[in-house]
């Protein structure tokens, strides 16, 4: 439906309505703040609309969406880091406790801090596996990484998070 | 399945999967509209939106335009042309109104279609029988529902083709009484 020019808009609307929540939470877990997420998700779906012709049917539509959302989010975070004149890495969770759209407790804040310390791929794998219950096959499709490597990444992420939480409790 | 991987992680289990993130009220209702606006895609609200009293006023608007056109141009020379298009415009207006209503009821009117049909209303000289057929604006059921007793032919296309020059300008007034 979305690849047919005659029904593209209607197909796109169905896609937005079906996946907006999944994509929103995927982005939100990476940047934590609602305002940033709102910007990124709009850019994501705009890119989806403009590139729908490039969608290859060998992958699932939703993994393709996740891939675009992931790339948009990574680019957004890199741009934030570039803007930091000091060169230090931005840890987006740091302002979270003051965010209007966060009412989590200290333990949740601590976990977010730990996730932010993870290398980018481990962070992505952890979020998709732990929060989204996504299969390794789908994560593999999104991140273009072998299932074995993803399992290792997830294992390392959990170990690092345990260590971080213990040290910062 | 992910939980299975975490059996060894008591700490993560204790914290749980609640994250503490919140959202502006009705955020997911408004997000699609923000996206569609940036892409110039009509929202369902826009597709359904027809100005209040539009169909009540449309015939008068078209008549005014036709009469205005008649006044501005040489009456005698183009009278037949004006009569022809005025008559078509009157009929088309009914069809377009009814057709749009039917389409809108099925929520299939796009902004482009709406704009095009509005354009036709404003430019009756652009309307041809092909357009009538293409947009399926000729429909016996609609005609019967609207009780247009002056037009009883089942073959509206044939009727229009054979009778365009016979339809008097007064017919417009009768039609909208």
Write out key terms for the chains shown.
A: 169 residues; mainly alpha; B: 177 residues; 11 helices; 66% helix
Structure, described:
The complex is a heterodimer of chains A (169) and B (177). Chain A has 169 residues and is mostly helical. Chain A has 7 helices and no strands. In chain A, helix 1 (8-31) runs antiparallel to helix 2 (34-50) and helix 4 (106-117) crosses helix 7. The longest helix of chain A is centred in the first third of the chain and has 24 residues, at 8-31. Chain B is an all-alpha fold and 177 residues long. Chain B has 11 helices and no strands. In chain B, helix 5 (54-72) packs antiparallel against helix 6. Chain B is rod-shaped. The A-B interface holds A 9, 12-13, 16-17, 20-21, 24-25, 28-29, 32, 34, 38, 41-42, 45-46, 49, 100-105, 107-112, 129-131, 133, 135, 154-155, 158, 161-162, 165-166 and B 1-2, 5-6, 8-9, 11-12, 14-15, 17-24, 28, 31-32, 34-36, 38-39, 41-42, 44, 110.
Helix content of chain A: 55-70%
Principal-axis shape of chain B: rod-shaped
H-E string of chain B: HHHHHHHHHHH
User: What's the rounded overall pLDDT mean of chain B?
Assistant: 58
As a whole number of angstroms, the C-alpha radius of gyration of chain A is 17 Å
Which helices and strands occur, and which strands form pairs?
The complex is a heterodimer of chains A (169) and B (177).
Chain A: H1 8-31, H2 34-50, H3 61-83, H4 106-117, H5 120-131, H6 136-143, H7 147-168
Helix pairs in contact in A: 1-2, 1-3, 2-3, 3-6, 4-7, 5-7
Chain B: H1 2-5, H2 10-15, H3 27-38, H4 44-48, H5 54-72, H6 75-105, H7 111-122, H8 129-134, H9 140-145, H10 156-163, H11 170-176
Helix pairs in contact in B: 5-6
Characterize this entry briefly:
The complex is a heterodimer of chains A (169) and B (177). Chain A has 169 residues and is mainly alpha-helical.
